[in-house]
Amino acid sequence: MDDALVIGGTRFIGRHLVAELLDHDYDVTLFTRGTRENPFADDDRITHVEGDRTNDTALEAAATTVDPDAVFDCVAYHPKDVRAATRIFADCEAYVYVSSGAAYGREEIPKREGETPLHECTPDQATDDSFETYGNRKAEGDRAAFAAADDGVPAMVVRPPIVYGPHDYTERLNWWIDRVNRFDRVVVPGDGTNLRHLVYVEDVAAALRIVAERGDPGEAYNVGDRRLVPLEELVDLLADALETDVEIVHAGPRELAAGEISLEDYPLYRSYPHVLSTAKLAALGWESTPLEDSLARTVDDHRENDRDGDDNGPDREAEERVLAILETL
Q1: What's the pLDDT at 329?
Q2: Over the stretch 165-199, which tens digit does the pLDDT of each residue have?
């Protein structure tokens, strides 16, 4: 493969994907609305086609202009987006849809491609834009890709869990980095054993390229850090990356109530472990960045920008009330 079209590609996952493709000598075309700053505007290796991916006519025009070998769909948020793209790019060598671990509809450890059931999706959910239907819509997008593969389109699916790393606009991990960086005492919800699969953004980018080059049509591939750590250990690793020391203070529902906080208010907290099997992707030759390295790069990026994730979790004043209660016990 020589030519790649990235639908979306200037914000987070797509931005790192473009860098990954350039590092592997692809000619890259971006298809975006042009509403965000383009970090590749001065890179003459990249062509930019402006258009709205929800407009089929604009996408069809891009297909005739570019004729890509591989299509990477980073911004398909509704099943109809996948159905349109797989129809329009039916002649490409690989269509890779960025899905999500949220597509899985049953709690089990680990969640495996082709074994763990996906969420159902009603017609109303398929057109909804709320967070509550995100997993349903991603699951239906997966089924649209599989249906296209049944019709001969080389469509494949990549499912990441929560993604972190440089340029992360969600700022979920940034909230924890900010806490560890600014305070000596860090509240960790529950007993600290909460386990939620994360994945470094550069590893997602590599997975997308590898699946396009080596994956099988009609297949889904989970991608996630090969080393999983409970939340308490993650906080310790962030402290190491920041070259600081913190005291971890555990707080359960009773203690958190003093600050009118719940366990679920904390970013990355999940009552049931969320773990994806990544063996299928690893069999294609994909490797994960060592966790200490990925966190160090993420911390370096955090220090260079103003993303603190403040809106993602409890405010410090509320936590101080919890800490005061714990000191009396």
Answers
A1: 66
A2: 999 999 999 999 999 999 999 999 999 999 999 99
Round to whole Å and give the CA distance between 266 and 310.
11
User: pLDDT tier at 41 (50, 70, 90 boundaries)?
Assistant: confident
Q: How far apart are CA 81 and CA 281, in angstroms?
A: 25
* Residues facing 70 on adjacent strands: 4, 94
Q: Are 314 and 259 in contact (CB under 8 A)?
A: yes
**How far is Cα 183 from Cα 187, in angstroms, rounded to an integer?**
10
**Letter string b/e over residues 47-61, b meaning 16 or more CB atoms within 10 A of that residue's CB:** bbbebebeebebbee
Q: In what order do the strands lie in the sheet with 155-159?
A: 46-50, 27-32, 3-7, 70-73, 94-98, 155-159, 220-222
User: 88 — phi, psi (to 5°)?
Assistant: -70, -35
> Which of the 8 DSSP states describes residue 103?
G
Q: What is the mean pLDDT of the chain?
A: 96
